[in-house]
Amino acid sequence: MNKRERVLKTLNIEEPDMVPITEMDIEIPLMETIVGKKFPATTSLQTQVVVDKELEKKSTEFRIECYQKLDFDLILTDLSAPEGWKPKVDSEGKMVDLWGRILALDKQTRAWVPYDTIFKSPEDFDNFELPNPDAHGWTLATEHAKKILEDRLAIAAFIRDPFAQSWEMFTPLNFVRWTYQNPQVIKKAIEKIADFNIEIIKRLAETGADLIISGGDYCEEKGPMVPIKFFDEVIFPNLKRQVEAAHKNGMKLIKHTDGNINPLLESLSNIVDGLHSLDPTAGVDIGEVKERYGDRLVLIGNIAVDSLAKKNKEEIILETKNVIKKASPGGGHIISSSNSWASGAKLENCLTMVKTSREHGAYPIKI
Predict the structure, then answer these.
(1) Amino acid 95: pLDDT
(2) Mean pLDDT of 48-73
(3) Worst-scoring range by mean pLDDT, 106-110, 176-180, 218-222, 319-323?
């Protein structure tokens, strides 16, 4: 059984030969240490800011090399920038992206992060033209990864959840204010971004991607970020539309969210095919989720990122074994951290997580 076959069997909630391993992301400084050379681009590609396609191909190759060195089974690819688009960079080095976000470069992680927005009023969105999903170039990274890997590793294509995309576009403060003052503009934004994603999902399926991962948080440590009623009336119907598009195109959709998702679990279990991060620091017990929803949800997680940054090697071994014991029996579990390998993580701990998973993740689970 090769790595892709292992992941596909897991996605069907069946036991493969061993528990697959992946990470949603590995920050550039850690990747450089793992690979032993410099990342070919200046910054991370996660916000679709690279317009040099050859450079993006090299960056994709670098990520593949990193994931293969780590013996991972599943690799994620981001959407690329559409052809012909060029970012607007001001005199301070800040950039306006495709979604109207003003981004600043984090020099430590070398990633563009939201700083401000071009949307100063709800009316600004009415005059804003969203990116065209039919433009050429969006799937370049996924196509290139598929060309290199063929069927050796599974490929997950990453899209941005409309809820998260909209509050990042407007800023959290404006999002909350306009939800009460002008709720129709928020509803319209989420619907339009979902429409964009549905078209992108069709194109990603054509590249041979194996699954979709929808990124963007629904919750914080204390619970959902907006009232449950808003999820039921706006967020979940649009999430369901995207899941249906993935299914229609032969793929499953996994939802990523940090935070305490316990109040949303029942609803999510009836919409998505799986969940990633299952944040243990926010009170999410992967064993309890497995017991209640393991027959219908693929679980990806959940070695705590705080543990990778602060604990010692022996503690990581115990935590990894405990997660495998709770979540892996019966299949449907992919080992990863509870978010990603950030630059603050100890590389020794990250590698210990992988080594322990390989040593104790063979089926049948015997921990």
Answers:
(1) 86
(2) 89
(3) 106-110
Task: Kindly tell me the burial class for residue 206, based on how many C-beta atoms sit within 10 Å of its own C-beta (0-12, 13-18, 19 or more).
Answer: exposed
- Residue 301 zone, left/alpha/beta (φ > 0; ψ -120 to 50; rest): left
By the 8 A CB rule, do 164 and 193 touch? no
Alpha-carbon distance of 349 to 274, in angstroms, equals: 26
Torsion-angle region of 327 (φ positive above 0: left; ψ -120 to 50: alpha; else: beta)? alpha
Cite the beta strand spans of 17-162 per DSSP E.
74-77, 88-89, 95-96, 101-106, 111-117, 154-160
Q: Is 146 left (phi over 0), alpha (psi -120 to 50) or beta?
A: alpha
Given pLDDT bands bounded at 50, 70 and 90, which one contains residue 241? very high
Residue 49 is predicted with a pLDDT of: 58
Compute the distance between CA of residue 339 and CA of residue 128 in angstroms, rounded to an integer. 32
Strand partners, 18: 362
Type of residue numbered 255: K
Short-list 78, 17, 1, 82, CA closest to 47: 78
- 48 with 95: CB under 8 angstroms? no
What element of type H or E holds 206? Answer: helix 183-207
How high does pLDDT run on average in the chain?
94
So what's the pLDDT on residue 45?
Answer: 52
Query: To which residue do tokens 């690279």 refer?
Result: 50
Cis peptide before 364 (omega within 30 of 0): yes
Q: 22 and 74 in contact (C-beta within 8 Å)? A: yes
Q: Residue 273: name the closest of 362, 338, 210, 219 by CA.
A: 210
Question: What CATH fold (topology level) applies to the domain 3-82+121-360?
Answer: TIM Barrel (3.20.20)
Nearest to 334 by CA among 281, 292, 297: 297
Q: pTM of the prediction?
A: 0.94
**pLDDT for the residue numbered 85:** 85
Exposed e or buried b for every residue in 39-77, given b needs 16+ CB within 10 A?
bebebbbbbbbbbeeeebbebbebbbbbbbebebbbbbb
The domain spans of the chain are 3-82+121-360
Strand partners, 74: 154
Report CA 51 to chain centroid distance, whole Å.
22
